[in-house]
Give the backbone structure.
Amino acid sequence: MPPSKPQALLLVDGYNIVGAWYRLQQVRDRDGLEAARRELIEALVGYSAFQGFDTRLVFDAQYQGTPGSQEVITQNLCVCYTDFKQTADTYIERACALYRQDLRKFEQRLIVATSDRAQQLTVVGYGAEWMSAQQLQHEVETAGRHVRNRQQAKNRSPNRFLSSALDPIAQQRLARMRMGLNAEDI
């Protein structure tokens, strides 16, 4: 069976999010930018899978002197590094402009996550939805809680006891033993 089509394409302005989430700011200041990027990637892996989004996390590489690249993390998440002298903003704006002419826009939402006000106005002008860094953080945390609650519910299933794995005859013998019946009666 072919994989289902993602319900939305989510473009995330990576460094904008790192600068806006307090936890990522702390990681960046303590352990460096690479550690903050890894933590953001980890957070978006679960969120993208939970939501069924095709997520592109975009980081500036404008000062690196290297061509742009993409790193596929999961089926739902790709990390994009921009070309030399290209910002994440221009990458996202170009993607929105191309999407505007794409027929997928009738079947799939386009969402841009950034707290950059100028970027917000531009992408909304192209017909994309806008999500603030704080809203994305809230949704990522909420998705994480849903997944943990589902896991806990699975672990609390009524069949979690060893006796549930026993065949009916063994269960009857154990029941008789609990009632204090002799071994001969068993």
In short: Residues 133-155 form the longest helix (23 residues). The two ends are 51 Å apart (CA to CA). The beta strands are 8-13, 53-59, 69-72, 77-81, 109-113, 129-131.
